[in-house]
């Protein structure tokens, strides 16, 4: 199976490195020709994945037509760009493995739903889990969820993507796998705020647990399964992203907690902090589904510029309730 990777940011490049394990050929599409040039000539992507020597069997291109020869495509652009990028790609009936984490603004569609609408003939899979790109690219042990409804394709993709340090766990719950990855980014911003404002470790653990309850409520309402939400793509990724300044979402939250504005913090970045885009869409989607998500709502308010003390105070002052609700 010839693997193509769409998107040459940190995660696309790390996944290309995994797929190139054993010197297998992999083709990666970069929007920026300079990134493609760097990968081909220096076997490195200094802009998005510095200090990692890439396999020479990774070939970079910047013409979408060059992806036509691939057997399966990993989609790894920022979530808000998936629709526009996929519309330019020669997909046909090639499987699309969605690796981006988010919900599309305006339509409130998960990335898999965006892909299905543009390429209805392409089977869909989702790869998601606790995966800092620089660790995966450095060959550190990592496990992910690989979701696909078609058993034969699920098996084939798992076998092709697995490597000695990279272990996929299979499921047919595509929706559940997508929702965990999208929502954990919003919750990670909240945990970063707790860190930045010096609110303590107890508060961070409480936010992870109550945030997981929100993720589960929303995931079940959208048709995901509880076991998936409690797995690598849900709870696993939530714990990782809510615990480390290596997370772009967590570090955005740290800045907010220190009193800086979202606009100022986002203007400083080349790389994507998906939670900032997902939060307002999630707020709308939760209202539409009738799901109560007070922690995610608090993150929206903080991104909109509300004061940390006021937002945390309001969260704590809500009427007392039973834990399972
Ligand atoms: N970095 C990680 O550790 C990691 C791990 C798992 C999943 N993800 C997810 O993968 C996706 C990509 O993240 P990343 O870390 O590779 O991002 P990144 O910020 O490192 O790189 C983004 C890439 O997308 C390109 N890009 C930006 N805007 C674009 C547009 N409008 N159209 C086309 N291309 C565009 C950039 O040129 C760049 O190549 C995100 O949804 C992220 O949540 C990231
Ligand atoms: O740096 P972040 O916050 O985008 O997180 C990266 C990955 O999604 C972690 O699994």
TrEMBL record:
GO terms for molecular function: glycerol-3-phosphate dehydrogenase [NAD(P)+] activity; NAD binding. The keyword NADP applies. NADPH binds at residues 11, 31, 48, 101, 133, 248, 272, 274. Pathway: Membrane lipid metabolism; glycerophospholipid metabolism. Gene3D superfamilies: N-(1-d-carboxylethyl)-l-norvaline Dehydrogenase, domain 2, NAD(P)-binding Rossmann-like Domain. InterPro entries: 6-PGluconate_DH-like_C_sf, 6PGD_dom2, G3P_DH_NAD-dep, G3P_DH_NAD-dep_C, G3P_DH_NAD-dep_N, NAD(P)-bd_dom_sf. The keyword NAD applies. Residues 2-152 form the Glycerol-3-phosphate dehydrogenase NAD-dependent N-terminal domain. It is found in: Cytoplasm. One of its GO terms (cellular component) is cytosol. It catalyses: sn-glycerol 3-phosphate + NADP(+) = dihydroxyacetone phosphate + NADPH + H(+); sn-glycerol 3-phosphate + NAD(+) = dihydroxyacetone phosphate + NADH + H(+). It is an enzyme of class 1 (oxidoreductase). Substrate binds at residues 101, 248-249. NAD(+) binds at residues 7-12, 133, 248. Its main location: cytoplasm. Residues 173-305 form the Glycerol-3-phosphate dehydrogenase NAD-dependent C-terminal domain. Keywords: Cytoplasm, Lipid biosynthesis, Lipid metabolism, NAD, NADP, Nucleotide-binding, Oxidoreductase, Phospholipid biosynthesis, Phospholipid metabolism. Belongs to the NAD-dependent glycerol-3-phosphate dehydrogenase family. PANTHER family: GLYCEROL-3-PHOSPHATE DEHYDROGENASE, GLYCEROL-3-PHOSPHATE DEHYDROGENASE [NAD(+)] 2, CHLOROPLASTIC. This is Glycerol-3-phosphate dehydrogenase [NAD(P)+]. The gene is gpsA.
